[in-house]
Give the backbone structure.
Amino acid sequence: MTTIVAPMPGTILEVLVAVGDDVVEDQELLILEAMKMENPICATCKGKIRELTVTEKDTVQTDQILVVME
């Protein structure tokens, strides 16, 4: 199991995947707005989305789990 965490505090602008989706390494999963910049959050490996712990407009903190992949 792999977890994708927030690299910095910010707000989730867009969720680009859904639970059950197959993803490839470096695929964009979410867009995180931080310091007025849009930062893509990408998959670190190939897998399947098991859980999304955030939705659009959620505020997140550094190292908060965003996505769980298997």
